[in-house]
């Protein structure tokens, strides 16, 4: 931990959160942190992936193996969530969801979001806190077909793991830039990936307002 804190002092909170798990369990830490987080358990999956990537940059882990394990855990975790939502339904999710802050109001909002955007949400969900933990469950409840969910889930997991592994590899010799990217990612990434949805929403309301205006003058 001391070496990471020395190399990346500006992201000390991230390091202190995940390093004890990585030091004790190694590759298993990244697998179970991501897998269990992906169907709602409050574990630092993304943080653990980032820290394992930093360990790999410092030569303590194999970066390719971290990528493979992270991708596998992401896909398996989301599919477990899908099975919970599909076979358990809203009743079981609401019964146990309160323990991970998933109440009926929040569930309804997520369901509406999935109804409107479907597979696109699954692809970008990994980059957005809240959606990352529950997108599989909500997809299962909303009766999205498993084949469709799996396709977009594979794409999302590939992009998510690829981004962190790629950033760690490319910026390994620029540790200050890498640390700043990690620090700001919780704000930058949701903004980037939500922008298309916001634009689509604006276009929808503009068209709706235009039609309403045309009907008024008929």
Description:
- By secondary structure, the protein is mainly α.
- Helix content is 81%, strand content 0%.
- It has helices spanning 2-7, 12-25, 27-37, 45-57, 63-97, 104-117, 119-124, 131-141, 146-170, 175-216.
Which range best describes the helical content: under 10%, 10-25%, 25-40%, 40-55%, 55-70% or over 70%? over 70%
The secondary-structure class comes to mainly alpha
The overall strand count is 0
What is the gyration radius calculated from CA atoms? Answer: 19 Å
Quaternary structure of the protein: single chain
User: Poorly predicted ranges (pLDDT <50, ≥5 residues)?
Assistant: 189-194
N-to-C SSE string, H for helix and E for strand: HHHHHHHHHH
Mean pLDDT: 77
Number of helices: 10
The major beta sheet can be summarized as: none
The rounded distance between the terminal residues' Cα atoms is 70 Å
What's the overall geometry?
globular
Report the β-strand fraction as a percent range: under 5%
Quick overview:
By secondary structure, the protein is an all-alpha fold. The protein is 81% helix and 0% strand.
Give the key terms.
single chain, 218 residues
Give me the secondary-structure topology:
Blueprint: H1 2-7, H2 12-25, H3 27-37, H4 45-57, H5 63-97, H6 104-117, H7 119-124, H8 131-141, H9 146-170, H10 175-216
């Amino acid at each position: 931990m001391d070496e990471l804190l020395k190399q990346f002092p500006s992201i000390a909170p991230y390091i202190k959160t995940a390093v004890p798990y990585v030091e004790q369990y190694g590759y298993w830490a990244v697998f179970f942190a991501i897998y269990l987080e992906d169907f709602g358990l409050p574990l630092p999956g993304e943080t653990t992936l980032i820290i394992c990537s930093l360990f790999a940059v410092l030569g303590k882990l194999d970066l390719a193996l971290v990528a493979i394990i992270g991708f596998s855990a992401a896909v398996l975790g989301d599919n477990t969530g899908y099975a919970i939502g599909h076979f358990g339904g809203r009743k079981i999710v609401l019964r146990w969801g309160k323990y991970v802050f998933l109440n009926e109001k929040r569930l309804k909002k997520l369901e509406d979001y999935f109804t409107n955007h479907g597979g696109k949400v699954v692809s970008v969900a990994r980059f957005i806190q809240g959606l990352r933990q529950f997108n599989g469950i909500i997809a299962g409840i909303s009766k999205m077909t498993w084949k469709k969910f799996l396709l977009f889930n594979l794409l999302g997991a590939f992009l998510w793991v690829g981004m962190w592994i790629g950033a760690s590899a490319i910026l390994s010799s620029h540790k200050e830039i890498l640390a700043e990217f990690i620090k700001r990612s919780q704000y930058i990434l949701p903004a980037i990936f939500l922008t298309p949805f916001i634009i689509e929403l604006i276009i929808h309301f503009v068209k709706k307002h235009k039609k309403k205006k045309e009907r008024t003058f008929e």
